[in-house]
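Final report, closing paragraph on structural work. Over the funding period we assembled a curated collection of sequence-structure pairs, and we close with a single example.
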Amino acid sequence: MTTLGTGVLRVRHWLRDHPLALDAALALAVLVAMIVGSFVHPRPGEGPSFGTRPPAASGVLLMVAGAVALIWRRRNPMAVLAVTAGLTVVELVTSDPPAPVVMSTVIALYTVAARTDRPTTWRVGLLTVAVLTAAAMLFGAAPWYGQENFGVLAWTGMACAAGDAVRSRRAFVDAIRERAERAERTRDEEARRRVAEERLRIARELHDVVAHHIALVNVQAGVAAHVMDRRPDQAKEALAHVREASRSALDELRATVGLLRQSGDPAAPTEPAPGLAVLDELVDTVRRAGLPVELACTDRRPPLPAAVDLAAYRVIQEALTNVRKHAGPGAKAEVSVVRVGKTAEITVIDNGSGGGDGAGGGHGLLGMRERVTALGGTLTAGPRYGGGFRVHAILPVEARAAESG
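Its predicted structure, as stored:
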């Protein structure tokens, strides 16, 4: 079933990229239908019979001309409609009973209705219906109220209605898609704006808390260094001011950081920052939570720089968390850490059916990307071919000092 579905998708994509080929195939199908229909001989009162009369040579030429005109129905629908309608009128006037050249006009009228606006559709459609119906009623051998004449009216009218319905549906779908894309862009822009505002607020808070006290510490330390030898008592007083200012700075900084913490966070870190050295413990924790994880890690010596080591750990931690949240039941994850020259490559893949971090509406991928980019690395994340999700980060082994600090 997978192979058949893939083949159908390929054919659809190919036909979408080659509309002329699709129209040529449609024209051939219409020609076959017209030729088959031309063998039907309507006999009033007795019902139609098949094969009792062959189509005339002129009728065959008109059917072929009408079918060939349909090849260009997308490029110039009005011209194709005019050509097919003219051929149909000629057949209705000159032949009795006429060959079903009107089929080509029905397709051309449907194309006009599907590719133009509604007022144009109904103006052109009413004119075409009136001309063809009048020709059938005035020049046909059957009475004007015959079912063949009203068949021309019905088929051309339905072509207008069907084309207009298809055009309306396409416009509706395009409008929904445009609104969805606009909402997606607005959501991304809003997320970026909020992140920028939060960063600015935190930076402003930290600056207001630290800048004044650090400046005071700097001045008093300079005074103490200047008078240390000549006036020890004044130097001691300056150092007391340094101690008081630093204590105030630490208290205010602790209070500011406390506002940024979420409820349930510890008041202060009680262990060193995690890294790849404790990666096995992280994997074991995830396994105990019910997610099978395979770990492939090259030699971890020499150790990575602290900032790079922490970033690698956080990327793996967030990626495994996303797998647990969004991959669905029965998912498995694979984690690999490879040292390649002056870079470390982190890869986390899963075979789940979820949509990754974006499916949950969170900002985990955004946080991972910012953390990696801050160290001069790159991160890519997206669905895998065949199902699942893949997160791949490339981190420089030697992070830039300005960024790692």
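Confidence is low (pLDDT under 50) at residues 358-362, 401-405. The longest helix spans residues 147-227. We thank the funder for supporting this effort.
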